[in-house]
Model the fold of this input.
Amino acid sequence: MKIAYLCPDLGVPVLGRKGASAHVRGLVAALRRGGHPVVVVTPILNGSPWEEPAAIEVQLLHVPPGADAENVFVALKTLNVTLGVQSSLPGELRRVLYNQDLAKQLMRRFEHSPPDFIYERASLYATAGVTVARELNVPALVELNAPLPLEQSVYRGTGLGELAAQAERWTLTHADAVLAVSSPLQDYAVSLGVEPSRVHVVPNGVDPTLFRPGPPNPRLRTRWGLGVGPVLGFVGGLRPWHGVDALPDLLSRLIDRHPTLRLLVAGDGPQRAELERDLRERGLGRSAVLTGSLPQDDVAELIRLFDVAIAPYARLEHAFYFSPLKMFEYMACGVAVVAAAVGQIAEVIRDGETGLLYPAGDSSALLAACERLLSDPTLRSRLGDAAAKEIHGRYTWDQNAERVVDLARSLAPARRADA
Done:
């Protein structure tokens, strides 16, 4: 099937190093391996001009924001600076104007040679994919990774009130299918009025040829100065909801019993400076390595250096709706995992069988679980082996791609009948 994959989010560079970027490329590559021609439509390619762009063997249709959207964005940002205020309004209006322009450009490009279906990664104010799919009479599948208006208002603030929520509701209720990455997001979509039969849970996955068990690379260990002791590892964005503020205290308590322990943190984000300061003030600077963001192809090899991998999510004020990519990648590499028992994590990890779970926010329980694994290599090996088999058997991008295509095929006759 011919597939138009839309990633209209101005914060997701499809060739960049974000987890969302890896998600896009993972599913797209799997669709392509399945023999399906894919065109990826995106406004942004790289997160930074200094990053080497990731490889992707599909056609890229780069549709950047037009002059109107950019002029409005710059004018409002300048006003914010002049007034000395913080406001999300410039970025939100930019998204609204981009969405309108994107719909027009997609119609021009696909009107005489339409895809068999449109697959869109949901983003704020994004109605273009569903709009164009309805005009072309092809199925529209929308992937839902978060309750985006809620996330925007909680973590970033909003300048347009209920407009983002209304746009999200319209998109999800008019899509032919909604692919939620977790059960809480399935419930969320239904609460907005989406017919339950049209909402499907499709968790994140891995490329099993990249994320697989294997021996640690000694050269990589030397490169990062990890010494000869055990490695406690974390991969992900350094953001509040990932629980990274728990890492310094955890390391300080573990290192008394494991003096050669090293904490290896792969990722970047707004909490990096605070994390580095906390580690330094505790005298732990030499016991921790922060790599910054890395190319996705390097992440798997780094994970294989871990003796214990952690997902220390904190207790949140809202439902845990995430499908944590790090969890699948840790487990696929055969590394023993300690993770907070929240949301999908507690559905994927079987405590004591494929990993260890602890109550979110309980620092003593987190410490005890890490200590248990650091002190028991046999347990680490058993849990890691079982975890890898679980992920490779049930949670791969190729399996997700097959589900997506089967679903689109089942929806196509109804769309043709409507035409």
